[in-house]
Each structure stands twice: as C-alpha cells, then as structure tokens.
Amino acid sequence: MDSIRLRTLPHFFLALFLTFASVGRASAQDVGSAPDVSKEGVVPGAAAQAAPAAAAGTTTGDAAAIAAGDALYKGNCAQCHAINEVVVGPALKDVHKRRPISWLIPWIKNSSKMVASGDEYSVKIFNQYQKQQMPSFALTDAEITSIVSYIAAESEKPSQVTAGGATAGNAGQVDGQEAAGAGAAGTGAGQYVDLLLIVLVVVLIVLVVTLVIIANIMGDVLKGRKDLDGRDVELLDQKFDFSKIYKSNLVRGLAVGLFVLVVLYESVQGVMAIGLDQGYQPTQPIAFSHKLHAGENQINCAYCHTSVYKSKSANIPSANICMNCHSQIKTESPEIKKIYRAIERKQPIQWVRVHNLPDLAYFNHSQHTQVGGIECQTCHGPIQNMEVVYQYSPLTMGWCINCHREQPLNTKGNGYYDNLVKLHDAANQGAAFTVSSNGGTECSKCHY
Q1: Which of 41, 157, 234, 242 could serve as 295's disulfide partner, Cβ 3.0–4.6 Å?
Q2: Which tens digit of pLDDT belongs to each residue from 57-97?
Q3: Domains in the chain, please, with CATH?
Q4: Whole-angstrom Cα distance, residue 115 to residue 131?
Q5: Where is the signal peptide (predicted)?
C-alpha cells in the first residue's frame, strides 16, 4: 500500500473555514445581545423628577419630600458634601439638629452674606474650612427644606450593619464590591462558554482530519485492488480543478459586478457623509475626564452645564465652577494649574466645541431635557464612560426626525393634550401619541 497522502486537503480547509465561520457567528450573536450601556452616573435634572417639596421651614418624613430632596441634593450638594464624611465641606449628618432650618435656609442661599454679617457660627465654619466660600444657590425655601428632610432621613440610617458589613460611609464601596463580584461571576460564565466553544472547535477539527485520513486510506486500499475497471480508476484518480472556477465567465462576471457595487456603495456613502462629524474627538486645552467626573464621582450634568434644563443652550462651564471643587482638590495637578492661570489672566478657557448644529436648525435643550425628559445619553451617548468626549450621534436631520417619529409624548396630567390624544386615538386606532403626532416633524418646528 502506498503511504497515506492527504489528497483532499482543499476539502479539509473548506470544512475548517465553515467551522470557524459558525463559531464566529455565534460569538457575534453573543456580542450583539450585550445589554445597553449603563447610564449610571449622569442624572436628569432634579426639576424634571422631583416631587413637590415639603412646606418651607419644616423638615418632614414625607416620601415625596425626601425624594425631591434626594434629587436636589445630588444636583447641588453632593459635589462638595457627604452625609458621613468630610469632602470639600463638612459632613452633613444631623445638620438639622445642629442648626435650625431658619439658619440653614439663608446660609444655603447666600453664605457670603451671613459671614459678612458676623454671624458667629457662619464665621466659625468659614474659618474652619480654610475660608473656602460656599457657592450661593437660587433655591426656594421649600426646596431647601426638602434637601434637609433628605439629609435627616439619611442621618437616621444606622451607620453599622453587622449582617452586610457596610456603613453609611462605605456603602458605595461595598456596593462596588458586590457589583465587582457580580461582574466576576458574569466573566466566569463567559469564560466557560468560550472554553466550550474552543473544545467544540478542536473536536470538529479532529473529526475532519480523521475523516480525511480514512478517505485516503480507503482510496489507497481501493487502488490496490485488481478488479477495478477503467471508470473506477478514473474516479479514484480525479482531482478537483480550481482553475475551472475562477476562469469561468460566470464567476468573472460576478466578481466584476460585486466590485462595481462596492465602489458605488462606498462612493454614495462618502458623498452622504460630507459635512457629518460623527466620531469627532478634538483634543481639549485641559484634559477633562467625563468618565472621572460624571461616571466615577457621579456629578450631575447640570452642576457644570447649569442651563441644560432651563435654556436653549447647555452652556460651557466657567472656570469658577471648576474652582468650587479644585480650590481644595488636586491643587497641584498640572491640568488644574491651567485653570488657575486662566483665572489669573482673566481669560476664558478655550474649550473646543464638539457638537455643533448648522445655523439653519433650531434646537432647544430645555425643551428636550426638562419638558421631554430626554436623558443626556440619548444624544450624547455613554458620556459617563468617555475620557475624551466625542460626537456619538450623527445629528443629521433624518436622525432627529426618526426620533420624533418614535418618541412617545408624556401627556399624563396635562390637560392641553386631552382632546388631541382623543382625536389621535380615534384616527389611529390606539397608536402611540408621539412627537410627530403633535407636529414634531413639520418643517417650521426646526426651520423658520
């Protein structure tokens, strides 16, 4: 018998390619089924979510007031204060017991005025924290009262939990550990799936190689037989001729047609992309990390972009906003020193604009964030995960119109929409009342 020869090697490679293609499709499906990007760390405006506050001047255990205070606290206070530990300013636990609400309200509204008036406790706090001036807040008495109610509720929570091992001060750390454990479990499950796929691929490869060897052995055995006629010998000796495939007119025609289609497609895509800046990621004059501030430290968007819930523009934060924290935090950082230099020279920081709509299009931030309740990530993507901000969405007219066609309007509790919704439901058999249903796709809405 002749030595074993793998004459069907092309068939082996074909089977191997199909095997890996199947595994690749399975992996792609796993990736495609991944959950949406987490939106933790960036909270919509407190005004859009907060329930009516408690009556001014009286702390309360009312759940609605505490919820309102929670949103206001995170949007205005959490950058400099914590309940159980000192951050930039003092810990706020039991502040309602240390000072009356009649003192807290004017202090939060304008601490500078109280220090200047010579109020003993105000001066003491001012000197104790290196004469760091607390910003003034344009909050109503009821809003401040709801914040104090929230602080009072948080202060009553036990600082030690023997079963869980968490304190009010390290709850975030424990939560982070639990989340890390859950993530590790998920990673472990993913590793087992990957290992199983690898084992299956190896088994398939072994099977293919085994079949090829058996086929060649059988071919050699058959060639050693003397009773084969000419046709049988011809079948055993036949080889697959690849040249017949790529030399055929059909294959050449398909290849040329495919090449022309690819060129046309890329040309059309290139023309359609003129003027689009999706993915634009300029280098900023100061290395500001949204991942650190909005993600890890969970600073509310509205703390820096102060007009995002009440104005057409979200505004670029001034250096003074940065100094609310960085007059005390990371003062020796080379990047923070750039802020100091800008203030000393009385020059604004030259931030590079990332998102820019053409002048012919009207867009109002407050209409979307405050009225519509649209989250920042809807248009800006996972901003809380970006070290350097880039343009996530295409911001094209078609992209905006599709959103208006799909985005339902929250009409509950607003009598303005009652008759419109009835007429819409009668004409559209219960279809969702979207922005488009309210005229959101009319040309004059954005172009006038």
Answers
A1: 41
A2: 566 678 888 888 888 888 788 878 888 888 778 888 888 88
A3: 9-35+175-265 (no CATH), 46-157 (1.10.760.10), 396-448 (no CATH)
A4: 10
A5: 1-28
